[in-house]
Each structure stands twice: as structure tokens, then as C-alpha cells.
Amino acid sequence: MNVQKLLKLAGATALVLGCLNAYAQPQAASNVTAQAAEGASPSTGDIKAANRQLVRDVRRAFRAAKSQGLRASNVTVRANNGAVTLTGSVTTAEQVDLATNIAKGVPGVQSVTTHVAVRKEFNGRGSN
Fold first, then answer.
1. Per DSSP, what are the bridge partners of residue 69?
2. How many Å separate Cα 21 from the centre of its chain?
3. End-to-end distance of the chain based on CA atoms, in angstroms?
4. Residue 7: predicted pLDDT
5. What is the chain's mean pLDDT, rounded?
6. Which positions fall inside the BON domain (predicted)?
7. What is the secondary structure of 103-124 as a DSSP string?
8. Whose CA, among 4, 12, 32, 122, lies 20 to 30 Å from 86?
9. Strand-pair partners of 80
10. What is the pTM of this model?
């Protein structure tokens, strides 16, 4: 009778250990899958940081081009995964082309969309 109880206990222990092992397998696999997915695609925070850095790089290039005649203080720069959009205004058509070409030359910029208008400078004196 003691042998029978011992066999039942051993069988129940094997069953419990088997269930625990089977339960642990999907968790380990899902963790590996989640880690692989994280490595394959950047997080939202990483994408936002890269976009902010690209905007800073384009603005820095605009400041460096001031000696070429670019006055881009009224130009807004937005970036989205390498696609840069310029909006705002400058005083001459040449500055629109210059701003577009400078933005295209910044490392990491894949495309440039320009919505920059040419507007005469307003100095605030002598109006009306």
C-alpha cells in the first residue's frame, strides 16, 4: 500500500512539474519575440528624438548658410522619418531655392517639401 501511495505521489509531482514547464514555455517564447520586435523597430520615443535631431540639424545648416544670403528666421522646419517640410516666408525666390537645397544636403534628409512663400519684408514704419 505504501508503494502505491509513493507511485501516486511521484505521478502527481511529475504532472505538476510538466504543467509548470509547459506554462513557462510560451512566456519565454513571447519574451524573445517581444525583444526581437523591439530590436527590429524603434520605439516611438526613438523616432521622435530622431525627428527632433533632424530639425536641429536643418536649422543649424540654415544658420551656417546665413553668409550665403539665407534669412530663414521665418521658416519652420518639421521632420517625419527623414521627410522634411519647410513652411513660412522669405524675402526672395532665391532664398526659397537656397533653403530647399540646404535642407536636401543635410545628412538624414530623404525628401524636402517646400511651402515657403516670398513676402516683402515689413519694417513697421510709415504704414498708412
1. none
2. 40
3. 113
4. 72
5. 80
6. 50-120
7. HHTSTT--EEEEEEEE-----S
8. 122
9. 83
10. 0.62
Residues of the chain with pLDDT under 70: 1, 6, 11, 14-40, 121-128
Compute the half-sphere exposure of residue 17: CA atoms within 13 Å on the CB side of its CA: 6
| HSE of 65, CA atoms in CB hemisphere, 13 A | 23
What residue spans define the domains of the chain? 1-41, 44-118
CB 83 within 8 A of CB 55: no
Per-residue exposure over 65-74, b if at least 16 CB sit within 10 Å of its own CB, e if not: beeeebbbee
Q: What share of the chain is helix, strand, coil (3-state, %, to 5)?
A: 60, 15, 25
CA count, 13 A, side-chain hemisphere, 28: 6
- Burial degree of 23 (CB within 10 A; 0-12, 13-18, 19+): exposed
C-alpha cell at 100: 530647399
CA angle (20 as vertex; 9, 3 as ends), nearest 5: 10
How far lies 110's CA from each of 54, 71, 83, in Å? 11, 23, 6
